[in-house]
Write a structure and sequence with these properties.
- The chain has about 120 residues and is mainly α.
- It is built from 1 helix and no strands.
- The termini are far apart.
- The mean pLDDT is about 95.
Length: about 120
Amino acid sequence: MAMIEKAKGVVNKVTLELIYEVVEERTAGIRKDIRGLSEKLEEVDRKWEEDFKHLNQKIDTQVGQLREEMGQLRSEVRKLDEKIDFHVQRLDDKIDRLNQRMDTIIHMLSEIIRKG
């Protein structure tokens, strides 16, 4: 019976060693898979970072262009305001001259009517 017990012990030991060996192989495979996934995640993260930087540069460029265009538009609006002010002043001057002429004509007519 001792021999059977010894044989069972040997079988158990061999079985455990086989189990450990299989677990070790599976663990090594899983670690390899994890490293592969980790590398892929790093690559995705790197690409995302590059895309993010590229988009930020594009946004910065477009914001810069918009600011430049807004500055040009402000300048154009100022010039138009100056032109409008100039033309309004000219119209005011013409209206003043017309009013003076009308006053003169009214005065002359009233003199003619008084003398006449």
